[in-house]
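Proteins fold reproducibly. Look at a concrete instance:
___
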Amino acid sequence: MSTENDTPTGRPRGSARPGYSFDVKLWKVSKTGRKSRPWRIRWVVAGQVHGDTFTTSALAESRRNELWHAMNRRGEAFEIESGLPESEVRAAAEAAEAVDAEPPLRWFEFCRKYVAGRWRTAAAKTREGMADGLAAVTLAMVKRGDDAPDDETLRLAFRWGIVPVNEGRTRRPNSRPRTSGLRQPIGP
C-alpha cells in the first residue's frame, strides 16, 4: 500500500457532492476552422467533455484562467452535467431565483422608469416625442370596452402620467393640459 496522497495539490480531500466531481482536466486554447467564433476551450469533468467557443483568443484565455482558478486555487468541485464550477452553478441558481422572486414589471411602471431615466438630459422635443411614442404604443395595447374613454383622453392621461414631475400627484378628472388650446387652428 502506498502512503502517498493521490489528490492533486490545491484540491481538498474527499469526494464532492453527488453530481459534482473534482476530476477536472483543462485543455489548452485551440483554434477552430470557424470564422465567427474561431477560438475554443475544452475541459473534461469526470470523463465528460465540455467546451465553449470565443471570438478572440484573449476571451478564451480569460475563461480558461477562470476555470483554472476555480479548479486549482479555490479547489471547487465542477458539476458533471454542465461542466461549470460549483460557484458558477450556485450564482446562476441565485440569479434565476431572484428573477422569479421579483414581481413582474407592469407596462405603465416600465414607461415611467424609462422616461425618468432619460428625462433630465433630454431636450424638450425629445421628451415630447418619447412620451408621444409610448402613448401611441400604449393605445395599441389597450383593450377597448364599452366604458373605455376615447383615444385622445387616454393619450393625454398617459402622457401626463409618465412625466416624472407629475409622480405622486393626482389629476383632476376632467382637466386638460394647459397646452390643449395651442393645438387649435389659428385664424378665422
Q: What stands out?
A: The first helix runs from residue 57 to 73. Helices lie at 57-73, 86-101, 107-119, 124-141, 151-161. The chain is about 40% helix and 10% strand.
